[in-house]
Amino acid sequence: MVKVIDQKLQEYKSELKGILQRLQQFTQRISHTESGRIIADLRDRIEEPYMFVIVGEVKAGKSSFINALLEDPDLCAVAPSPMTDTIQQIMYGETYKIEEISPFLKRVYKPNPILKDIAIVDTPGTNTIISHHQEITERFIPGSDLIIFVFESKNPYRQSAWDFFNFMHEEWHKKIVFVLQQKDLMDEPDLKINMDGVKEYAQKKGIKNPIIFAVSAKEELQGLQQQSGFEPLRTFILDQVTGGKAQQQKLISISETTLNILSKLQSGLQLRQQQLDADLQFRKEINKALEDHSTRSNKQSDILVENLMAAYDRVSNKYADELNDSLSFFPVLKRSIGSIFSKSQSLKSWLEDFTKRLQNDFGSGMQEKINDRVLDLAESIQLMGHTIDLQMRNSKTILANDHEIFSEIGQRRQNILRELREAFGQFLNRTENFTATGFVNTDSRVGTNVAAGSGIAVVGIILAAVTHGMIFDVTGGVLTTVGFLLAGITLGLQRSKVVRQYKSEMDKGRKRLQEELTKELYAYIDSIKSKMDSQFTKFDALIQQEASDLVSLTNNLNSIQIDLGNIRKSVQNAI
């Protein structure tokens, strides 16, 4: 039966290694070196014994505790000043030897039977002033299977020790056993007070049933096993680990640590998703604002065009009445007779004067309306830009650029958004962005004139250019058409026909003018809107890439979590 369990455990180890490899590849994909290093370390430790990590403050008695636990008074150096200046990983070996792994880590091999099932890591004090040691100790914590936190019995309340406890418990959710060392220096009532104090501290920090032992390494090494307190601790270790459960517990411990890493990665992905959702909503609001302001500006242009058409109609009707009166019997007769003596008295010269006055009145009347109304449309277009600018400044940041895992994407987003804000501000302040060729149909009569405009005043130029050109067209048509009819007029008998033709020319001109004004203004407004929207190109590319990445990353991580959960459950059932 034992052989079958061992075979199964080897299969679980192999599967767990594969899962860790997939997770390491995931961390490489998101460029998070720290998580990748921890996962690689976990993968390497699968074949190692169950690992105890001994932590505590300097002079709490950690080294003496290890010596007593392994019944070897010379294993870890003990002295009045701090001696543990490196991490020591103590493992089983057929002969005693020491390997220098790095300036901060050495591996000690000892032929102690208990080390066949466990490895012990002795760490620098949590309050040590020796550089790098706390950092190195923290790097060892994720790969540990059980933390033994050693306190000095006389004072287990030092802040630096409990700060380190917070790191281990909150950051990694490690299984922790508390040991009050040097109990021989305390009387029983005071020792109990401090044990109760540690229990209360631990419970407040989220450990429901703290496991606490009070021991004396000195008494244990002196052979006073009955009073040293080590017997209950060894019984615990035997029940939990060395009694044939070490391999299973090791796999469970690695699985739980990996699940903790997965949880952090998933929380990070959730933040990224929240940021993406906020950015998509932001872009939706920007698009809506552009559409709304574009619609308002178009309505404003419609009002302006309507006013211009009203001015057009007043002038058109005024000259229709004049034409009707001027072509009655006696005025025509008078001009016909007068033309015999002077060309200036002819119908032709009168018609030329008529169209010239018509042209001038059109120009002055419509320019007056342009001057009255153009500011409303210009302000509407300006408001579009200022609204977008304000929305950008109020965009929501959820994924901070100093995020534990995804700081890179947070920083990239922040940089792109900052560039966007700066570029948009520059866009609003550059006159050429509102006047350059391309904002209106360059094939039209307005194209050349617009390029000479100044800022939002280009709206007035569009209106003036279109109306001016169209007025020449209309009055030219009147001169030609009416002139042709007048050439054969006889004593006002064709007056109604001439007036009808005049009105027809004016109606056609009105329709063309209204259509061209509306088309040019709509095109200008749409071009401004498109230009504003194009400022978001890089931001939109980021959103698109992020949406694609998140689907792939989330599916990948969910798959790993399911497989890891199945392995963990299988190992637990094998115990």
From TrEMBL:
The chain crosses the membrane at residues 450-468, 474-493. InterPro entries: Dynamin_N (IPR045063), P-loop_NTPase (IPR027417), TRAFAC_Dynamin-like_GTPase (IPR051943). It comes from the Bacteria. This is Dynamin family protein. Keywords: Coiled coil, Membrane, Transmembrane, Transmembrane helix. Residues 53-98, 100-182 form the Dynamin N-terminal domain. Residues 2-29 form a coiled coil. The keyword Cytoplasm does not apply. CDD domains: DLP_2. The keyword GTP-binding does not apply. Gene3D superfamilies: P-loop containing nucleotide triphosphate hydrolases (3.40.50.300). Pfam families: Dynamin_N (PF00350).
